[in-house]
Structure formats: C-alpha cells, structure tokens
Design brief:
Radius of gyration: 19 Å
Largest sheet: none
Shape: globular
Order of helices and strands: HHHHHHHHH
Number of helices: 9
Distance between the termini: 52 Å
Helix content: 55-70%
Strand content: under 5%
Number of strands: 0
Number of domains: 1
C-alpha cells in the first residue's frame, strides 16, 4: 500500500477510506432538492423561452464551467511558495467534495427536467452515485428493475426511469448500501490520481487540475446521457418551481462582465 501523503489523505493505515472522508463524500452527493429547484427556477427566469432540453444544455455548460474552474484554482496553489503541500492537500480534498456537489446538482437537475422528482435524500444519492459510477452503477441499479431482463451486456440505457416509479424502498436501500462501498473506493482512487495533478509545482498543476476535472466531468456527462436516454423531458411550466421550500439564492450562473 502506498504511504505517500496524497494517498494517506484519503485512506488509513489498513488501506480503507478514512471515516471522515467517507462522510464527506456522502455529504457531497447529497444535494437537497430545494437547492436543485432553486437553481432551475433561476435558469427558467433567465431563459424564459427555453425548452427543458435547452435548459439541460445550460445545466451542462454550467457544470463544466464550475468543475473546471475549481480544479484549476486548487492546482494553482502549488505555484505559490507560501502554500505548502499540507495546505494544498487540504484544498484538493475540498475540491473533490466540490466536484461531487457540482455533479450531484447536475444529475438531479437533469432528473427534474426529465420529470423525475426525487424528494428522498437516500434515493437522490443513489441516482447521483449511479451516474458517477457509469456502467457499473447502472448495472447494479437496473438489476433491481425489470430493465435487467434480457438486456445482455453493456450499460443500461434509460436506467434513471426506475427512480420515477414507486420502487420498493427496501430494494433501493439495498442498492444504495451495495453501491456506496464501491462508489467511495472508486472516488478515492480517481480523485487520488487527480490530486497528484493539482500538486505539480510551478503552475503546471493549474493546467492539469482544470483539465483533469474537465475530463472527469465529460465522463459524468456521458454517463448521464445513458441514464436518461429515451426518457422524455417535461415542459418547463410543469416543473415544481413554486414549492415554498425553495430557497432564494444564486447558484452557479453569474452575470457576465461586459467587454
């Protein structure tokens, strides 16, 4: 087992993810629905004539902007003499959680735009983990649905549809418990490698950090395309954006500066 400081940030001496890291990761994928609806409400106000499919493109653009910027910002700390490796490692861990939060907002926003409203936090986490895990996640989740029958090998297209049905809570809980272990280990391994890029000195880390996050985000976008394939989007007017629990906040999009 590697004893380098990057690996030991995430794992303990026995090679297992640290409990604090596990808790942070699960909080990262647990973006609450009111925040998702607040984001979509703001997008709808800014793009009143846009269809749900067009809003989904805006959501994708925002996602790439946010995760690429956070990766580059943390990577840049390695070029500042006053910022040591320990501080940079802490910032990289924070960037990992930020990436997960942005990914959760992205996945749940797409779910809403496809008419899949998920109030239960555990089910929301399961959806997000499935999108982040790609084919492995889709296979595990679809195994609990009729989609698994006769599907053969490969990713299960449109597997997110099962979240719009009254699927057994116990089955979903079983899926989450099983997927969560693999998900945490995958995130620890993937982000450990990504952190190495952010710690490269002399400013090169900023380039690698931003590019690394963009690469990961592109994979998430591809996974989401499979998850929601064949599921119709809903008319923006049908979105539940008048919920009194929606918070009033600015999310992701900022006014662009005039040149």
């Amino acid at each position: 087992m590697s004893k380098d400081p990057i690996s030991m940030t995430f794992i303990d001496s026995s090679g297992k993810p640290r409990s604090a890291v596990q808790d942070a990761i699960m909080r990262g994928v647990g973006v609450q629905r009111p925040l998702v609806l607040a984001y979509l409400k703001r997008l709808r106000a800014k793009h009143p004539q846009a269809s749900a499919a067009e809003l989904a493109k805006v959501v994708e653009r925002d996602y790439l902007v946010v995760v690429t910027g956070s990766g580059a910002a943390v990577g840049g700390t390695a070029a500042v003499p006053a910022v040591g490796t320990a501080v940079a490692l802490g910032l990289s861990l924070a960037a990992t959680i930020g990436f997960l939060e942005a990914s959760a907002l992205y996945a749940q926003s797409l779910a809403e735009l496809h008419g899949i409203a998920i109030d239960d936090p555990d089910r929301s986490r399961l959806l997000v983990m499935g999108v982040l895990m790609g084919e492995e996640g889709s296979s595990m989740i679809s195994a609990l649905t009729s989609q698994a029958a006769g599907r053969g090998s490969g990713p299960v297209k449109g597997w997110a549809r099962s979240f719009g049905s009254n699927k057994s809570t116990s089955l979903m809980a079983t899926a989450q418990k099983s997927l969560q272990k693999k998900f945490i280990r995958k995130i620890v391994g993937t982000q450990g490698a990504s952190m190495l890029g952010r710690l490269v000195p002399f400013g090169i880390g900023a380039v690698i950090g931003g590019a690394g996050n963009r690469y990961l985000a592109k994979r998430v976008i591809e996974n989401a395309a499979v998850a929601f394939e064949g599921i119709d989007t809903v008319a923006p007017s049908q979105l539940e954006l008048d919920d009194p629990d929606i918070i009033d906040t600015d999310i992701v999009e900022k006014p662009r500066k005039r040149k």
